[in-house]
Amino acid sequence: MRDHECVKLRTGKVIRNMCIMTIVVLIVTATVVWACIFTKNMKNAQKTTPIEVTSTTTTMTEETTTTNTLSTASSTTSVTTTETTSTATKGGITNRRWNETGTAVAGGSRRGDRLDQLNSPCIIQIDSDDDRIMYIVERFNHRVLRWRQGENQGEIIAGGNGKGSRLDQLDHPTDQIVDKSTNSLIICDSENRRVIRWFIQNPTDTQQQIILSNFDCSGLAMDTDGNMYVSDYKKREIKRWKKGETNETTVADGPGLGYQVEGGYLPLYFFVDENHSVYVWDNDNNRVLKWAKDAKDAIVVAGKYDTEDIVTRVSGRHGLFVDRNNNIIYACDLVNHKIIRWLNGSKDGSVIVGRYGQGRQPWQFGMPSTLAFDRQGNLYVADYGNDRIQRFDVIDD
Fold first, then answer.
1. Structure confidence at residue 12 (pLDDT)
2. Could you report the per-residue pLDDT of 150-185, keeping only the tens digit for each?
3. Number of domains into which the chain is organized
4. Is 60 exceeded by the pLDDT of residue 309?
5. What is the pLDDT of residue 43?
6. What is the pTM of this model?
7. pLDDT given for residue 22 in this prediction
8. Which of 5, 40, 199, 288 reaches 20 to 30 Å from 280, CA-CA?
9. Half-sphere exposure at residue 163, Cβ-oriented, CA atoms within 13 angstroms
10. Is residue 107 located within the same domain as residue 18?
11. Domain boundary, last residue among 25, 49, 73
12. CA-CA distances (angstroms) from residue 159 to 123, 219, 315, 365?
């Protein structure tokens, strides 16, 4: 009996020890698996999880004013810098965020001139009646495409007949606007030094109209009254032609406008809001200038001259966009590969997309040139160096 009891005792101990070892192994295994999953999720989160950008609304209050003088051979423009105070806000469009991982909605595979390819897209515009339709200006394919999201290729609606000066050709176009009243495009045909109207209904015919000639145009805009604005990148000025009139008016000028580089000039882009105010980037002083309707003097509405502020210092040519409801200003930083936002009057901006440096990943840019928004608030960026159009979906909090 004693031997039998000893055997039972030893057997019980073995079973108990095996159970304990099994439990320990399961705990260790679960811990390792959890740690691996956590680490992987953290790495993915760094790439794909949008980073919340805190911002404030800005109340325009004139506290201190300083005046600088910008002069050209033909005119003198004074610039007023207005200090502002800021108050915090909860929710609302000033706290709007976007997924920092973009989706290529046009191009992105390989540079080329096929209808499913892009070559250095410099301008994107979303159709005002249909968010699914995009107009894309391709500088080095010398054409304008109309591309419907969800389709794998676009259609040529201007140019596309090789580089040239015929009426059915373009030479390095830099901008365009859609004129709904005439169902046409107005195109800045840069190297041909002309502004040309291209009818959408019959894009293959030769019934184009030259609106301006012998003009170093680079940027275009049309206000709510149908008045046309054109920038001259060599003279560093923006002119306005009122609808039905032939005489122009200079609405913005100054040596800080435009961007001169070795061997030439880069395009001068600008933005016109619903109140007919003109916004232009002052490259010399890292700031956005605003000329109110018919104003002779500009005011500084965003940015500051600070060579040490690497985060919000903008370099190179870039598109501007001004939110019509909250006067929030957005800009493309072509050289530093990011999109920056300022509240109107704020000196300090914040990066909203493109904080991971240059590259071809969905969360990176290769020289973003212009931006646009659809009616839902989704952000579109012409990724010039990566030959694609990226959409960044808005996040509803």
1. 56
2. 999 999 999 999 999 999 999 999 999 999 999 999
3. 2
4. no
5. 42
6. 0.76
7. 64
8. 199
9. 11
10. no
11. 49
12. 15, 18, 30, 27
Two tokens at 99?
A: 């997924």
Same domain, 149 and 250: yes
Say if residue 14 is in the same domain as residue 69.
Answer: no
What is the separation of C-alpha 315 from the centre of its chain, rounded to a whole number of angstroms? 14
Q: Examine the domain organization and report whether 331 and 240 are in the same domain.
A: yes
Contact 132, 150 (CB under 8 A): yes
- Domain of 148, CATH number, reads 2.120.10.30
Integer Cα distance of 254 and 133 in angstroms: 36
In degrees to the nearest 10, what's the CA dihedral of 272, 171, 232, 385?
Answer: 60
Can you give the residue range of the structural domain that contains 28?
1-49
My answer on whether 40 and 155 are in the same domain is no
Co-location of 188 and 45 in the same domain:
no
Pull the structure tokens for residue 301: 């509405």
Q: Which residue has the tokens 């010039």?
A: 384
Decide which of 49, 64, 79 is a domain's last residue.
49
Both 259 and 191 in one domain: the answer is yes
Token readout for 11 is: 């057997």
Residues 203 and 222 both lie in one domain: yes
> For the segment 203-260, what is each residue's pLDDT rounded down to a tens digit?
555 579 999 999 999 999 999 999 999 999 889 999 999 998 889 999 999 877 876 6
Q: What is the pLDDT of residues 51-94, one digit of tens each?
A: 333 333 333 333 333 333 333 333 334 555 443 333 333 334 67
Range 336-360 burial, b when 16+ CB lie within 10 A, else e: bbbbbbbbbbbbbbbbbbbbeebee
Instruction: Give the integer Cα–Cα distance in Å for 16 and 263.
Output: 84
Alpha helices in the chain (DSSP H): 2-48
Evaluate whether 93 touches 328 at the Cβ level (below 8 Å): yes
Q: Which of 226, 232, 217 is nearest to 175 (CA)?
A: 217
Indicate whether 325 pLDDT > 60. Answer: yes
DSSP annotation of 97: E
Antiparallel, parallel or unpaired: β 76-82 and 298-303:
parallel
Q: Which residue has the tokens 């509405």?
A: 301
